[in-house]
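User: quick one, sequence for these C-alpha cells?
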C-alpha cells in the first residue's frame, strides 16, 4: 500500500480536522477537543521513515492513565517494529514513544504503511479521552 497525502487528508477531514500548516514533509491539522479548545495532529511522510504527533497544548489535560495504556497497546509496537527494521542499517537510531503525559506526544519512526491506521485510531482516541470514561475501557 502506498500512503499518500490524499489518504492522510481523508482521515483528518473525516474526523473534523481543518488544515493548520505545512512545512516540507510535515503537515498538521486542528481538531475540536471535547474538553474545549483544539488539539493538532501532525504527520511527517518520508520515503524511509514517518511520524505521527499530537499537540494538546490548547486543550485541557487528558486522563494520563487511560492514554498511556492506549499508547502501549497501539503505538509502541509500531515504533518498536520500525526501529528493529532500521537497526539493520542504522544501529544507533532512537525512537520516540508517546507516554500519555504532557501536552505533546510523538510516535517515531513508523513504517509508512502504519501511518494511516495509527493516525485514525489516535485521533479517535484523543476525541474519546475528553469524554466520560467507559467502565470497561
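Assistant:
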Amino acid at each position: 500500500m502506498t500512503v499518500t497525502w490524499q489518504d492522510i487528508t481523508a482521515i483528518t477531514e473525516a474526523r473534523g480536522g481543518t488544515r493548520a500548516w505545512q512545512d516540507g514533509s510535515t503537515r498538521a491539522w486542528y481538531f475540536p477537543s471535547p474538553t474545549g479548545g483544539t488539539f493538532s495532529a501532525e504527520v511527517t511522510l518520508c520515503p524511509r521513515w514517518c511520524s505521527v504527533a499530537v499537540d494538546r497544548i490548547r486543550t485541557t489535560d487528558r486522563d494520563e492513565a487511560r492514554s498511556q495504556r492506549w499508547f502501549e497497546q497501539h503505538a509502541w509496537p509500531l515504533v518498536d517494529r520500525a526501529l528493529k527494521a532500521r537497526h539493520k542499517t542504522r544501529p544507533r537510531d532512537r525512537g520516540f514513544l508517546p507516554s500519555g503525559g504532557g501536552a505533546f506526544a510523538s510516535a517515531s519512526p513508523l513504517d509508512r504503511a502504519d501511518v494511516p491506521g495509527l493516525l485514525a485510531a489516535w485521533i479517535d482516541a484523543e476525541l474519546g479521552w475528553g469524554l466520560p470514561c467507559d467502565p470497561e475501557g
